[in-house]
Design goal:
- The complex is a heterodimer.
- By secondary structure, chain A is mainly α.
- In chain A, about 80% of the residues lie in helices and about 0% in strands.
- In chain A, helix 5 (about 65-100) packs antiparallel against helix 10, helix 5 (about 65-100) runs parallel beside helix 12 (about 235-270) and helix 11 packs antiparallel against helix 12 (about 235-270).
- Chain A is extended and about 75 Å long.
- By secondary structure, chain B is α/β, with parallel strands linked by helices.
- Chain B folds into 2 domains: about 1-80 and about 170-180 and about 200-275, 3-Layer(aba) Sandwich (Rossmann fold); about 90-165, no CATH class.
- Chain B has helices at about 45-50, 75-80, 100-105, 110-115, 120-135, 150-165, 180-195, 210-215, 235-245, 245-255, 255-265, 270-275; strands at about 5-15, 15-25, 30-35, 60-65, 65, 85, 170, 200-205, 215-220, 225-230.
- In chain B, a hairpin with a 2-residue loop joins strand 4 (about 60-65) and strand 5 (about 65).
- The longest helix of chain B has 18 residues, at about 180-195.
- Classes of the chains: A mainly alpha, B alpha/beta.
- The interface of A and B includes residues 175, 183 and 184 of A.
């Protein structure tokens, strides 16, 4: 009896899984090869110009001090755009997320339509939203702000809903039982426990918003992004480097600041 | 007609699962009633139907001469304000202080604009403090609710319910999460309050000993039906054992995970508590 058991080889994985793995690997390789072929990559051209990289890079090793004040000013305008969209977006998101979260919604269909709308907004890139807004209200900062509201709300509403649903039914039920109305339940029962996590999400979004408001320069929204686009178009290498450094330092500062804020907020929740 | 609450042929089903299959009960003021029964017997559903946290499928619930099962909107909230409720997990607002938690009991009586301003009348703040004093927690009034112990939280929960100046007090497993000493304190206070204020108090309990010790009247619920009703003296050990007999199989056979998920979704009230407790 014992002999028989040892005689039979024991498979580490069942045969079906063992077969599946190489099959999936082969499929992935095929997809990769087909994609590369579909792109018609010009390897020869790439190789011939590879030598130029050193020369081009050397152009970038320059710093244009006179550009700095303007770059900083434009950066400020980009930051303002990001913060403006965040401020308006967070108010909209706060209202809509309470209407959409499963445990707080006054109406299931309303919740479903808000959640559906958010899924749609998140599926479309921010740049496309801005282009659509520009198409309808023209170029400028207003379009940038309105356009930036879409990804801001998409992100915040989704995060806010997750935080609200995480709270469960307990206190909501308790306040319902006292005869309190919906608004009172939200304000006194749900919001107090949520403030820190909502602020945490909002501060996190600040980073994305500034980054996106910079990238909106590409579609004609003013700010450091459009300044960078102009410099790129004119091959002003020193200017490009200066602007890039300004962007880099700003983003790093914002990231560190947001990190500190979130640490403070999260520390508060665990206390 | 002396009863505060009269329930007639109350029915509720969750999918295939019949939580209540025709419950008829009357409740008088000043009486402390304990409902015992195994998990899934319908205790929680019964108590939650009374203040319409759960919508019954059939039957009548007459509270203070109003048909609770027909009420909606503002009229329902107005009646709910007259019914205090106490929960197993206390359900206090964690990041809010004790005094404010107790004052939440007044929200059902205040116009929206007043509650938004947080403008509770001085007399009500005074009353909240008196209630806290009764349970020995007045010195903790500015403490955040989530810093209290379980027993303290439940006492705050009772104060919140009493703040409503209720005619009826519902308690759903109020001591299930408490240690024996705290449980005694909470039950003692509930019983005393019921007598003093002439309330009608209905408590769901798991522990037969606690029911025997505190109840004026015990109701045994099993598989959605009343199987026992009487004074603690008339509840023999054999009857008590019978109430809890074969309870497990009923739950497991009829309520699947998918059922529970749908119930939670549709009712927005977790039956899980009944199942898990």
């Amino acid at each position: 009896m014992k002999m028989k058991e040892t005689a039979k080889k024991i498979q580490l994985t069942p045969l079906s899984t063992a077969l599946k793995t190489p099959l999936i690997a082969a499929l992935l390789v095929t997809v990769f090869v087909v994609s590369v072929m579909a792109l018609h990559l010009d390897i020869a051209k790439f190789q011939s110009r590879l030598a130029n990289i050193g020369k081009t890079l050397s152009h970038f090793v320059a710093f244009d001090i006179p550009t700095l004040p303007k770059a900083l000013l434009e950066m400020l305008s980009s930051i303002s755009l990001g913060i403006g969209a965040l401020a308006i977006g967070s108010v909209i998101s706060l209202a809509l997320s309470f209407l959409a979260a499963a445990n707080t919604t006054p109406n299931r269909f309303l919740a479903a339509s808000i959640k559906g709308g958010i899924a749609l907004i998140r599926a479309v890139p921010a740049l496309v939203w801005v282009l659509m807004v520009i198409a309808s209200i023209g170029f400028g900062n207003t379009s940038g702000l309105v356009g930036l509201l879409f990804p801001t709300c998409g992100y915040l509403i989704k995060s806010f809903i997750a935080s609200i649903e995480d709270k469960g039914m307990g206190t909501i039920e308790a306040l319902q039982a006292t005869g309190a109305g919906w608004f009172e339940i939200m304000l006194f029962g749900v919001l107090p426990g949520l403030l820190t996590s909502l602020l945490s999400w909002t501060s996190m979004r600040l980073e994305h918003n500034i980054a996106e408001s910079i990238s909106l320069g590409m579609v004609g929204v003013s700010g450091v992004g459009s300044m960078l686009m102009r410099a790129l178009g004119n091959y002003h290498y020193a200017e490009i480097t200066t602007i890039t450094v300004v962007i880099f330092v700003t983003m790093l500062t914002v990231e560190l600041a947001v990190g500190q804020v979130r640490k403070k907020l999260n520390g508060d929740t665990t206390k | 007609m002396t009863q505060v609450l009269s329930v007639c042929d109350l029915r509720k089903r969750y999918g295939k699962f019949e939580a209540l299959r025709g419950v008829d009960l009357d409740f008088e003021p000043g009486k402390f009633t304990v409902i015992i029964g195994p998990s899934g017997a319908g205790k929680s559903t019964f108590i939650r139907c009374i203040n319409r946290m759960v919508d019954p499928d059939g039957g009548e619930i007459v509270f203070d001469s109003a048909h609770m099962e027909q009420l909606r909107g503002a009229a329902l909230r107005q009646r709910r304000a007259m019914i205090g409720m106490i929960f197993q997990h206390y359900n206090l607002v964690a990041r809010t202080n004790v005094l404010r938690n107790v004052l939440h009991g007044r929200l059902g009586y205040m116009p929206l604009w007043k509650s938004l301003l947080g403008a509770y009348p001085e007399s009500e703040k005074r009353r909240a403090l008196d209630l806290l004093d009764e349970v020995g927690l007045s010195d903790q009034m500015y403490k955040r609710a989530d810093t209290l112990s379980g027993g303290q939280m439940q006492r705050v929960g009772i104060c919140r319910a009493l703040m409503q100046a209720p005619k009826l007090l519902l308690a759903d497993e109020p001591i299930a999460s408490l240690d024996p000493k705290s449980a005694e304190v909470v039950m003692e206070h509930l019983k005393q309050t019921t007598k003093q204020r002439g309330l009608c108090c209905i408590v769901n309990l798991h522990q037969v000993e606690f029911a025997r010790k505190y109840a004026d009247r015990i109701i045994g619920l099993k598989a959605g039906r009343v199987v026992f009703e009487g004074s603690p003296a008339t509840l023999s050990d054999a009857v008590a054992r019978d109430i809890y007999e074969n309870a497990e199989s009923r739950l497991e056979n009829q309520l699947t995970g998918a059922d529970i998920a749908r119930i939670e979704d549709e009712e927005r009230v977790a039956l899980c508590e009944t199942v898990a407790a």
